[in-house]
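[step 3/7] fold_predict: job queued, chain A
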Amino acid sequence: MPGGGFSSVPPAGVEFEAKITPIVIISCIMAATGGLMFGYDVGVSGGVTSMPDFLKKFFPVVYRRTIIPGTDGNYCKYDNQGLQMFTSSLYLAGLTATFFASYTTRTLGRRITMLIAGFFFIVGVVLNAAAQDLAMLIIGRILLGCGVGFANQAVPLFLSEIAPTRIRGGLNILFQLNVTIGILFANLVNYGTAKIEGGWGWRLSLGLAGIPALLLTVGAFLVLDSPNSLIERGHLEEGKAALRRIRGTDNIEPEFLELVEASRVAKQVKHPFRNLLQRRNRPQLVIAVALQIFQQCTGINAIMFYAPVLFDTLGFGNDAALYSAVITGAVNVLSTIVSIYSVDKVGRRVLLLEAGVQMFFSQVVIAIILGIKVQDHSNDLHKGFAILVVAMVCTFVSAFAWSWGPLGWLIPSETFPLETRSAGQSVTVCVNLLFTFVIAQAFLSMLCHFKFGIFLFFSSWVLIMSIFTLFLLPETKNVPIEEMTERVWKQHWLWKRFMDDDHEGAAVTNGDIAKKKGHANGFDPTSQL
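[step 4/7] structure written:
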């Protein structure tokens, strides 16, 4: 290994040479299958919990409510803590696994962490498909949750580090695209298996999760580890070779030197979690935590729950679940593709702000219509109103899918500096899973008590998160990860106060550069007063 050639580091603002090579595309696609597994787990749980045979075996109380008319109203039929625990246990386990995943991501690498995730997924799938009682079912879900914790920790980091800067957003959103495809695939599987005679259809639904689990495991064997990870662990020559392969050029010295310098600085940090709380790292931490909370408070769960009832009202009868799942799932997938195309062109802030308006409007309209027309023991919507509500459902889902869905993962993965990146991603995943658990565990009970008002509850959160985006979220489009501090945080009207002020003159110069390149760093209220 070269001993003394790491003193010169490229100045901030340098765009490194990088081609979009086949190995980058293949590696990103294989890694993003972690999202396919996550999406399938999310989608399949909602389907099997509505299957009579599954409810009869594991949740007989809920089963009796669904078959005896008039027992409970439309809003309270599925209000059961055990049923909610089946769904939410996955997220609670993922929350715990995240802390271990942070260690393996940092010390063993992104690739090994993805392998561990694949192992947990496979064992969890086997236990779920063969479950004989509720305990076995929950243990299987817990192991799946461990897989989610490890995958959600490693995959977004891997994608951000391996992708060329100019298409980093698009490739990173492959993870979220696979989540939406996994949900759509699970809904289609659930529709087919629900028609199987003999009461074992739910086992097939849970067992088919083995397909994305195997894809992730095989993919983790085939992909390269990221140069950032190899250099961070001291494998400089391997890191340089990996960087040369994924960039498709021999002119990698400037980027390599910057990665080595970032790694040197990172190794001086002995306690990354404690370092996260230092003043200069607070902006990234606040943004990451806020985005995860806001993503779960958009109300996407409320919309997805209502879809079967709404489509049933349109006259689809027993096929209501299929139509609702396919239409909302297809809108979800297509809108995520829109995000892949537009995120590196129009930027993160534009997508989030536009989607905020769209989601707020659609949820308020849905709340008004359901408040007037849908009662506890009646879902008698006029067909015209039903079509309008379905249109609003698709409007909401599309807005979420090209904004808060993918960008909630993308922005934190690209803003933390290397010395706190693993710890920061760990906190990001942890907060996301914590609030997903809270929503999953409480949602059916909230629906029972709030009724249509749950849409107004979530729409108020959409308003809050849009104001947060307008004032406090800087634009990170086309900024190399290693230059975020100089070109983003030191230029923001508020967050620059938390940065080290060692380079005041440079900050002004870089601010001019950022403005010329069109990086919006948040609406500054002080400049308007």
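[step 5/7] annotate
The longest helix spans residues 418-450.
Residues 1-13, 502-518 have pLDDT under 50 and may be disordered.
exit 0
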